Amino acid sequence: xxxxxxxxxxxxxxxxxxxxxxxxxxxxxxxxxxxxxxxxxxxxxxxxxxxxxxxxxxxxxxxxxxxxxxxxxxxxxxxxxxxxxxxxxxxxxxxxxxxxxxxxxxxxxxxxxxxxxxxxxxxxxxxxxxxxxxxxxxxxxxxxxxxxxxxxxxxxxxxxxxxxxxxxxxxxxxxxxxxxxxxxxxxxxxxxxxxxxxxxxxxxxxxxxxxxx
Length: 213
Ligand code: SIN
Ligand code: MN
Fold this sequence. Notes:
Layout: E1 6-9, E2 12-15, H1 21-35, E3 55-59, E4 62-64, E5 69-71, H2 87-99, E6 108-114, E7 120-123, H3 130-134, E8 139-145, E9 147-152, E10 162-166, E11 171-174, E12 183-189, E13 202-208
This protein binds succinic acid (SIN) and manganese (II) ion (MN).
Succinic acid binds next to strand 9, strand 12 and strand 13.
């Protein structure tokens, strides 16, 4: 059955339930295995000194929360090299981008874990290479576990926002002319995820191209 495709704005596309429950379970397992390993989850501290309201894991490259740059090692945390981005994860992102009519060769995946109090402030994803941004090469996200109240705005922080619920198994693509739209996670809706994922909270995987040196 073809996946439903909802265009929120041109280039901002929701693909509800694009991942089967089995695929969701596999992704949770991969993230859990890496996250509980030696180079696992951490809570980023941002420029102003505050802590983010998520646990993070960068695969392929590390996103430095103090400099907003990508780098090989986790210089703002423990100095360890970022774990590689598994091909099994990248292929999911490529498929989701294609389903939205776009192309992506991801070189980084940022995995975020949100507990019931988790959230992420409005921001633009603009730390990737300029050519990538200019070409509108998308950010692809995958949601697992509890539903997020995801906000999508315009190109200015003060622009009106729409709330898009992102449920477990949904894909979301922000590309083309929407590549630099402000977005964020207003709240997590506790206990809304599939029980058989064994996930208390939400995982999001955001795949990007243009982080490599
Ligand atoms: C992000 O914008 O970096 C994360 C979004 C999400 O968790 O869905
Ligand atoms: Mn983002």
